[in-house]
Amino acid sequence: MKNITATQHNPFGFEPPCEPFVPGYGDANADFHVIGDHPGVHGGSESGIPFTGTPAAERLQRALVAGGLLQEAGTPPTVDKTYLSYLFLCGDRVPTEADYADHEPMFDTEVRAITSHVLLPVGERATKHVFANMTAEPADAVDMEELHATEVRGSGWLVYPIKDPVEWTDEDEDELVAALTALLATDYRQEAELGRFLPGDEVWRVR
């Protein structure tokens, strides 16, 4: 099953009660879902596009280009099989715990609708959320230095946590690019093979 849409900006039509807000951007049938915290941390309040408008966001985009997840960096970036979004969409305030809870249904809708194969949470908050809801990993003690650019097996996803780019060293950037390049050289798809239910030798793989 695929989402049928030519819209890359806010393909699910979210309208949170705030202004400005930064909805998801990218391929609604993406293999890779890059997940940030909120516009105040990761940018985009002016453009409406996640991970834009700050030096750290631009550095992350460049690494994603070098690693093969974006075609070109920019505002907006040129995407192919990648989707970018935030846990909290509003750009008018620093979110409270209640704010995050209010926006969780929208984020969950995105994750379930896109059904990407690889989740890439950026920063500690996003990583803790993904660990708590999409893996069996403990979310209370997340060490981003240790987890950065490493593979974690999730519940139907591969997870590649990314240290917040504002804190990157050159080595952190190189490690991410190398990890993404190696990932793309593998069969990263998280699918089940249902051929045993079909006559003959036909292969039927589903997400």
Structural write-up:
The structure is a single chain. Strand 3 (70-72) and strand 4 form a beta hairpin. It is built from six helices and ten strands. The protein has a six-stranded mixed beta sheet. It is globular. 31% of the residues lie in helices and 14% in strands. It is α/β, with parallel strands linked by helices.
Which strand-content bin applies to the residues? 5-15%
- The largest beta-sheet arranges its strands as 1-5-2-6-8-7
**Record field, number of beta strands:** 10
Give the SSE order as H and E letters.
EEHHEEEHEHHEEHEE
Largest β sheet strand count, sense and barrel closure: 6 strands, mixed
Low-confidence stretches: 203-207
Decide which structural class fits the backbone: alpha/beta
Fraction of helical residues: 25-40%
Radius of gyration, rounded? Answer: 17 Å
Mean pLDDT: 91
Overall shape: it is globular
Count of helix runs: 6
Spatial separation of the terminal alpha carbons: 9 Å
Oligomer: single chain
List keywords for this structure.
two-stranded antiparallel ribbon, 14% strand, 207 residues, 31% helix, single chain, alpha/beta, globular, six-stranded mixed β-sheet
Q: Short description, anyone?
A:
The protein is of the alpha/beta class and 207 residues long. Helix content is 31%, strand content 14%.
Set out the fold topology.
Blueprint: E1 25-26, E2 32-36, H1 39-42, H2 55-67, E3 70-72, E4 78-79, E5 82-86, H3 97-114, E6 118-121, H4 124-134, H5 144-147, E7 152-153, E8 158-159, H6 170-184, E9 192-193, E10 205-206
Parallel strand pairs: 2-5, 2-6, 6-8
Antiparallel strand pairs: 1-5, 3-4, 7-8, 9-10
